[in-house]
Every structure is written in C-alpha cells, then in structure tokens.
Amino acid sequence: MTAPTVDVHAHVLLPEVERLVAGEPALAAARQLDARRNGPDALAVNGQMVRERLGVLTDVAQRLSAMDGAGVDVQLVSPSPSHYHYWADRGLARTVWETANTATAEHCARAPERLRGLGLAPLQHPDLAVQALDHALGEGLAGVEIGSHAPGRELSDPAYEPFWERAAETGALVFLHPFGCTLDERLDRWYLSNSVGQPTENAVALSHLVFSGVLDRHPRLRIVAAHGGGYLPTHLGRADHAWRVRPDAGNCAHPPSHYARRLWFDSLVHDPAVLRELVRVAGADRVLLGSDFPFDMGTDDPVAALRAAELNDPDFDAVRGGNAAALLNLKEIR
C-alpha cells in the first residue's frame, strides 16, 4: 500500500461563472487593468493558450486521460484564478462564489475517487468570506482558493480575522494563488507579469500573514502556497535579519523562517536546486506536488520535475503524495 500521487495545483475553467459577469461595466475596467499589467503580447498568447487547453480545463474525461499520462492519481482542482472577480459588488460576488463552488463540486463529482475541489471566497468583501467558505465546505469541497490581495486590502487586514478563524476551526484548506501583480506596467513586457509578478505576489502575501501575526493567532490554519511560495522561502535570511534588528519589522512571535514550517508549499518552482532548498527550509512534510495543470507556466510531468530534485526516497514519497493524502484524508492505493 502506498500513498497516491496527488497534484494539489490544478485548475478548472467554469464558463457559467463568466456568463454571470458578462456585460458588467466593472468587468470591462478590470480587463483594461489586466491589459495594462500584462501587455498586448502576453494577452494574445494567453488567449491562444487557453483555447488550445479548453478541453482539459472543462471535460472530466480529458482531464483523467491527461492525469493518467502524467502518472497522477488525484488532483485537487481549483477554479481558474480568472474567476476571482474581486471587483464584483456584494450581490454579484455571492452569485459568483455560489456558482463557482457548485460547478467545481459537480466537476469533481464526476470522478470522486480522483478529484477533490476547492471553491472561492470574495476577498473584496471580508465580511462575506466566512459564508463563502462554509458554502464551499457544504458542497463537499476541501476549502477555498484566494488571491494574494483584494483592492485596497492585504491579507494582514484585521477584517479577515473571522475568515482565518473559521478556516482554522474547520480545518479547511486555503490555497493562496495570485492573479495579477500590482507592479502594473513595469512588468508589461516579456511576460514579466507572470515570471516575476507571480512569485513577487506570493512573497508579499505570505509576508503579510507572517509579519502581522496571523499565523500566531491561528496556528491551526492550513494554508497552501502556490508556486513554491514565490521568492519568500529562498530569501528568509533577509526577513529574519529585519525581524531581529528592526523594531518596526512586524508583530510575529518568532523569526519569519519559523513560519515556513507552519505553511505548505507546492513543488512548482521549475528548478531542482530551488525545490531542494524549499524542502530544506520548509521540511519535506510541508511540500506538496503541484503542476498548475494545464496551463503553459506549469509542468506536464510534475513527478519527473520532483524526481530531478534527487530527494531521498522518504522525502520524495512524502512530496509525491503522502503529505497531500494526509491533508485531504485520502486512502492509500495498492
């Protein structure tokens, strides 16, 4: 009996969500901002890339076939971050999260032994986030996916305290996955908006959680950071130094490096040396296999990418699936 191979970073596209927001004036403004941040070349490539992958993003049979080809037994499926729509007003936000949660649950229910799901929570309306989390759990999902910030709010905002408390109380997974970068036009060429912007957003968001004391106040939180946590895990020495010498450097009880072992990280770092360092810093029990399926900034063979890091056998097996199986309460396979 061995733990299944579990990919915790895989996405589903939900056309029903996009139909809900079509024609909204605020959507047009959000897309204009997205265009400024990414630049025309990136948007053109993105559109073609998504069209080519529409089948595996929406059809369960195609998803399972791709999983078989990659040697993945179970996926934790989260909505495409393009469905966040953090510009939506309260009424529309509720419709978006309810629709996304239900649609994701229905997608996963077509292959319940192989698919687990995550819902959405409206970070732009912190007072509704608990309701969204409870709705996701009520649909049988494992938790929710969130971005790195909402307009005018960082994850350290006290308004999110009830959400963190509820997530900790229920044992829900919170998958931190950025969408867009606030460095805006500075990254509008050469796809810097993703290659530099995403790891930057991960590092900023996690730093807010660490330095503000969120992880001290809610030690049972189960937060999984996409993209290996971005730049943060490999630059914790500087964060620790600031914590030691600067009286203004946060309210956390321990050096920032302490909290790397209080979070979980996916393995999607695209460099075996960086993955080995992530395992060293966070511990092999805190790293989970991730592919960003099926987008082009992911990997088609996450197990091979993990194998390239040349971890010892117990650590390899833990990252390959043992850690995620424990988080998701999955059964072993023969």
TrEMBL record:
InterPro entries for the chain: ACMSD, Amidohydro-rel, Metal_Hydrolase
Any GO BP: secondary metabolic process
Top-level taxonomic group: Bacteria
Residue ranges of every copy of the Amidohydrolase-related domain listed in the record: 6-330
Pfam families to which the protein is assigned, alphabetical: Amidohydro_2
Keywords: Lyase
GO molecular function, one term: carboxy-lyase activity
GO cellular component assignments: cytoplasm
PANTHER family: 2-AMINO-3-CARBOXYLMUCONATE-6-SEMIALDEHYDE DECARBOXYLASE, ISO-OROTATE DECARBOXYLASE (EUROFUNG)
Name used for this protein in its record: Aminocarboxymuconate-semialdehyde decarboxylase
Organism of this sequence: Lentzea flaviverrucosa
